[in-house]
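REQUEST ID: PR-0412
SUBMITTED BY: lab tech R.K.
PRIORITY: routine
TASK: structure prediction, single protein chain
INPUT:
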Amino acid sequence: MWIKIGVLVAINLLFFGRTLAYGMIIDDIAAFNEQGKLRTPNFWTNLWLQFKQAYSESPALGHLFNIVVHTLNTILVYFVFGQTDVAFLTAVLFCINPVGNMASTWLSGRTYAVATTLVLLGFTFPLLFLLAYPITFAWSISTILSPLLFVFGEYKVLVLLLPVVAYFARRRYLDTIKLRINTVSPVMKKFEFRKIILVFKTFAYYFILCLFPFKLGMCHTYLHTFGLSDKETEPWFKLDKFFFIGIILMALIALCVVTMGVPFSFGLIWFFIFSIQWCNWIVINHPITERYMYLANIGLMYFLASLIINTPLMWIFITMYAVLNIKYIPAYKDCLSYWESNVKNFPEVAIGYNQYGLELKGAGKIGSAFDVWLQGRAIRPQDFKINYNISSLLIEQGRWDIVKEFIVATELNLCKISNYEFWSTKVKELKAIASTHGIDFNLTKEQEEAIKKDKDLRIEVDKKEVDDLNSMVAHPFLHEKFRPEYVEFLQQKYKVKLEGVQNVNDVQPATGGSEAQSDTGAGGNTV
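STATUS: complete
OUTPUT:
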């Protein structure tokens, strides 16, 4: 047993040790900027706050935390599945499968890994689950269905924790959803019966992605335009191969529930329980993202290990995951590397080009940023963010001869982005600057009618979003000490005026950006 544990530790150090020299990406940068506000005189308090990723002082320390947590999870997987050869293979596959890198290597993805640690501790020591399960919600809502696994074990009574804890944690769960859902369009957050098609398709996509993680990144091609417009949304409701694969997989899992004696049954049920809530019943952020599968993938790796143990396929999968892990980990060095990798893996996704362009511009590579944004615009000409960023860049460069086309495209698509009032002010600023250089912005009658048609609906949607955010700010369990900072965080993230905020126009775009669906970028007047 101890030899195998030593091997698991060595594998983690071998594959993830180099991340100690890596920097920060996306949300990590925002956490780094919080250190001046949250650092205390107490060393242990600071260490705990950094472990929680409330703020960050040292990327190396953050990556060390990630390595420790992922290593612990790898060892716990070995114990949860009985310390057998299959359990050991499961732990190895889970450890090096690159689909878990977003939680094991990205500092801000650590919340998913820590929640997984607590759940695995509870599965290893069932009585500890009484304490560990409720605590997981402080880290991630991905664990909510954990008690269902006890249906198939000795401690069936622990299933009763689900309704009890879910009742008391419901506000936390709903607030987490609200925080994300305010960045997406009405069709994404709306629950409707035909979304069962998306559920089957998403489940199949995640299943295949976890088994064969050949392409990874923040913005996957599959479902990437869902919710952006009616025209771009409708094709995703068509039946495709993933829909039929999803039906077959769901039927197989239903069979597994009946025939729990089959060794791999428990692995498929595990995968189902921890992936089903992320299958786009409603879309609260990215339709597809790998970090959601960190906990679910443990079950799938157990399923795989049960099938390939002591066969040539075992070495094929170990080698494949090892090679892919080595290939994809360098993407986490910095934001520029990450978005460059995303564009290479998913060249059809316009938002990837937008974020990559922001990082190039932030690095002073203005020409490259312009070229990348043009590539993204060729994919999606109506993209507000790309047109806005190109317009801002051309104004900075004094390219008055070509800027009009991009400013007009920005204005025509203004109603398709959240926080109309904020961004309409920004677009007016662009037009005012360009107008001083003799550029005329008289729109055609058709263009004016198109803008007017969407404007009222956009403002109504924005008002509902602000009401939701104000409700979160007024949460009675939110400590008064943190309320002003929470208000500031939300106003900066969503570009809205909340209670206690003097003037929404004083809120400038954040410099680091959060996730790819957000409206923030790499400084200046970019988005």
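NOTES: The chain is about 60% helix and 0% strand.
REVIEWED BY: pending
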